[in-house]
Amino acid sequence: MALIHRYRPQSITELCRLAARPQPNISRSLAALERAGIVSMVGSRPKRPELAVQRVTIELFELQSG
User: Which parts of the sequence belong to the HTH arsR-type domain (predicted)?
Assistant: First the structure.
């Protein structure tokens, strides 16, 4: 998310280069972030990732066993 915010890549390929990660890994991560409403894929081919939110808060809590 920081790379998308800082560099505003114009394609998934560009994001892969910035992250130094293979395209399938980036695509899976983007799909999960898109389902969560954090990232949007915009434009026509090539689609580019954009942040759909300004802030993300994650709350952690302990699960009670049994």
Answer: 8-40
Distance from C-alpha of 26 to C-alpha of 14, rounded to nearest angstrom? 11
49 has which bridge partners? 41
Spans of all domains in the chain: 2-51
Q: pTM above the 0.85 mark?
A: no
pLDDT digits (tens, 9 = 90+) for 12-50: 999 999 999 999 999 999 999 999 999 999 998 889 999
Closest CA to 3 of 18, 14, 17, 22: 18
Q: Which residue has the higher pLDDT, 58 or 37?
A: 37
**CA-CA-CA-CA dihedral for 9, 30, 1, 40, to nearest 10:** 70
2-51 placed in CATH 1.10.10: yes
